[in-house]
Design a protein that fits this description.
Radius of gyration: 20 Å
Number of domains: 2
Shape: elongated
Order of helices and strands: EHHEEEEHEEEH
Helix content: 40-55%
Structural class: alpha+beta
Strand content: 15-25%
Largest sheet: 4 strands, antiparallel
Number of strands: 8
Distance between the termini: 7 Å
Amino acid sequence: MHVKVTYRERLLPKWWVFVFVLSIIGMLSIAYGAAISAPVGWLMFLVLATLISIAMFTSSPIIEVSDSLRVESAHLPFSSIASVRTLDAAQTTAARRNPADATRFVTVKTWAAADAVLVILDDPADPHPAWLVSSRHPEQLMAAINASTHAGGSTPS
């Protein structure tokens, strides 16, 4: 059975995070290159830049709306969703810092996206009353969740 994906997003770090990390690696490589030799510095830069870039890419969370809402390995069936709303950067920060909501499932990556989507659950058995998820496109994510939720929790195969 093929599951139709209606929304997919990888929360990669913003471009300036990559530039910052590569700058730090560059400074270290220059220091080692000056202390040992230029080829050692270049080799260090190439190896570290490649490894850290791969790590930053592979560790970036994936948000997907298909047969359920998925954030990395966590799955939320649409039948458990009561409501969805988008949050701007200030609202996301406030929602993250509210100690009354400490049991929320939270995937907030401020280095990738300042805005988020708040998914309120309607499942008393779930230990998380809500999901707070960063998104570069919160309106599109909310629309995809709402469309799937109103479609009866399933998408066509």
